[in-house]
Each structure stands twice: as C-alpha cells, then as structure tokens.
Amino acid sequence: MKVLAVSGTRADWGLLQPVLALLRDDARFTLEILVTGQHLMAGSTSVAAIEAAGFTVRHCVDMGLAEGDGDAALCAAAGRAVAGVGAVLADSRPDMMLVLGDRYEILSAVTAALLSKVPVAHIAGGDVTEGAFDDSIRHAMTKMSALHFTTTEEAATRVRQMGETPARVFVTGSPGIDLVLAVPRMDRAAFFDSVGLEPQARNFVITLHPATLSADNAAMARAMLDTLEAYPQAGLIFTGSNADPGAAELDEIIRAWVAGRDNAVFHASLGSARYFSALAHCDLVLGNSSSGLYEAPSFAIPTVNIGDRQARRVRAVSVIDCAPEAEAIHAAIDTALAGDWSGTVNPYGDGQAAPRIVAHLAAVTDPAALIRKSFEDVAHG
After folding, report:
1. Among 270, 242, 266, 236, which Cα is nearest to 253's?
2. How many domains is the chain built from?
3. Which residues pair with residue 143 across a beta bridge?
C-alpha cells in the first residue's frame, strides 16, 4: 500500500514520526512524505531535521505563508495548499493519505484527497478544543476521513456520534507518547548549554499560541509576561508560535520581552530531542500548547494552561487551568510549583499507539472501497 503522509508543522511531525518510522521500515508499505505550511517558511530548519532523522521528503507544497498571517492571507494560503496537494495526488496516486490533528494546512490536504478520491486515515480526531477554530477543523476532517485513530475512548465516542462507522474507529492512544518513550534525553548541562541559558533553581518551558477565537491574543501574552516579572530567579525557555492568525504578533511581543534578559531565551523550535529534554529538566510548562496536555504529564511536571484554547481537551491532574489574566496566571504558577506531581498518569496512552495504527492500516485489503461512507445514526432512548 502506498501511503502519503502530510505534515504542516513541527508539532504534527513530532506526533506522526513514530508511525512513519514503522511504515518506512515495513515492506508492506511504500511511504511518501509531503510537507507544507510552517516547514517551508523562511528560516525553518524542520525539513533538514526530518531528513536527518532518516526520512525522505518527497513532496513540498509551499502555501506562501510569507505573505502574512492575516485572515485573507491564510485563506489564500489554504487555497494554494489544496491546489498543490491535488497536483501531488494526481502525480503520486497513493492508496491512502495519513494525517494528524486539526490544522488548517491539513484540512486543505484532506480536501484535496476528498476531491481526488483518496481515502484518508486521521489520527487524533474526536478531541475537543473549544477555544480555537482547530476544533471545527478537526471535526470537519473527521467527516472527510475513512479511518479514525483516536487518542482516547472519549474521543472515539465523539467520532461515532458524528455518524462514523464504528468498525472504522480505533482507540490507539497518541503516538506522541511513543515518541516520549523513544527519544533519548540530553543530560542537564548539555541541554541548557544547547539553548544558551544558565539553569536556575526553577526553570519554565513556555509556548503561547494564538487562541484563534479570541479577540485579543496580545493582551494574553502581555498578562503572561507581566506575571513572569514576579519570577526573576526562574530560567525561562520560550518556543515560537504555530503559523496561526496573529502568531507573528505574539512572537514579536515575546522576542522583545526576552531581549536583554539573562534569564530568558527564545527559540522558534527546539525539535523533539531538545523539547523532551526541556520537559525532563524543567519544573513547569506554561502557555496554551497541546504539548502541555499530551506530553508533559509523562514527565510528571505540571502544566499551567492559560485561557480556553484547549478547553474541554482531556487532561491529567497535573494540568492547572487559569484565565488569561496576570493574577490568575500567578496563582496557577504558585500552585503548580507547590504541588507534588510524581504520581501523574498520562491519559493519552501507553506508548504503543504507532504499532496499533500500522496494524490497522495493514489490515486494509481494499483502500479504494473506503471512499464510500455510510452515516451511522446513533440510537436514542
């Protein structure tokens, strides 16, 4: 079976990687990788990192994200992605497209697959994040996909509730947990040297993305930074935003704040090895990234989750939610630092998601038949 895997950001690549490694090394599959979105933005090193990890990037679809992150620019970029991925599908003719998550870049790829009659296998459908338009994108992708690999039973229930055939819905866990277990950690000294920060008594990993249904993401960023003024003895490692509307403004605000501070650094991306090393050697995850809910619990460190970007996503006990206001963020950080999180259980699986996903893909005998779907009514009463 020829599988075309599509990645649009460093985040979905990290989650896809354990699955793609198994597909690459399995004689039953021919794997082709298509990258788009953030991977191809100026200054990005992620394509080189993908190839350094032993993968071949066969297809690149430039969406033109250099034109800005305003609403009209992203609409135009999404259109270019549909056209570009459609051209790749016409040339490559895969049996299946494999995607993950809830990004608009991936929605464009799935749209092209639907129009090209290529069945889609979707990882991480059925989750809920009501503070971002990713929520609607994720559910739209579910309705355009033929196979569903969910991270939790709750997510699988939602997918079935959307009328998807139960026999095509599989609870696999998140492949991100597979990656957590597989990627070796850097030692403490080497990690902090690599990010250019002298380690402090307390160290925070911070990622703030736009909450795409919010009116004022800049106010959220300033509230967070005002709060961090109260922790001058903490080491602060910031990572960049995704390519969402308003991301450039957030990164600019944070870069300006970091400049000249000895206890803070900014990196557009850490990559999997350094990011997981950060989680291993730091005391707190701060911001609103899904990694604070997906991966951080596996390291038994707390997450202070700001605002509603991740609203209703399943979370471990180590996730502390707070309003995007300085006083609330301050209280949540203090609670996180005072707590004992050593017994945290990650609700997103056991690190065996990738083998389950590959086994289900291998069981497909007629991929073309998957493009025909029936809406399964949910019984009431």
Report:
1. 266
2. 2
3. none
* Closest CA relative to residue 237, chosen from 274, 211, 273: 274
- Count, residues in the chain: 381
Q: How far apart are CA 378 and CA 375, in angstroms?
A: 9
Q: Do 79 and 36 fall within a single domain?
A: yes
Q: What angle do CA 63, 68, 70 make, to 5 degrees?
A: 105
Q: Tokens 């803070």 identify what position?
A: 264
Q: What SS3 string covers 9-48? A: CHHHHHHHHHHHHHHHCCCCCEEEEEEEHHHHCCCCCHHH
Same domain assignment for residues 11 and 157: yes
One domain for residues 164 and 85:
yes
What count of Cα atoms within 13 Å lies in the side-chain half-sphere of residue 307?
29
Tokens at 238, concatenated: 């910031």
Q: Are residues 143 and 244 in the same domain?
A: no
* Distance separating alpha carbons of residues 356 and 359, to the nearest angstrom: 5
pLDDT tens digits for range 350-381: 999 999 999 999 999 999 999 999 999 977 65
Assign residue 149 the CATH number of its domain. Answer: 3.40.50.2000
| Residue for token pair 């501070």 | 261
Specify the long-range contacts of residues 257-263, CB closer than 8 Å, at least 24 apart.
Answer: 257/225, 261/236, 262/198, 263/197, 263/198, 263/200, 263/232, 263/233, 263/234, 263/235, 263/236
SS3 content of the chain, % helix, strand, coil (to 5): 45, 15, 40
Residue carrying structure tokens 């307390």: 202
CA distance 324 to 147: 37
Residue 61: beta bridge partners? 36
Percent above pLDDT 70 for the chain:
98
Residues 120-172 have pLDDT tens digits of: 999 999 998 877 788 899 999 999 999 999 999 999 999 999 999 999 999 99
Task: Tell me the backbone φ, ψ of residue 257, rounded to 5 degrees.
Answer: -70, -40
Cα–Cα separations (whole angstroms), residue 244 to 78, 94, 363: 12, 29, 36
203 and 121 both lie in a single domain: no
Residues 125 and 25 in one domain: yes
- How many Cα neighbours within 13 Å face the side chain of 177? 20
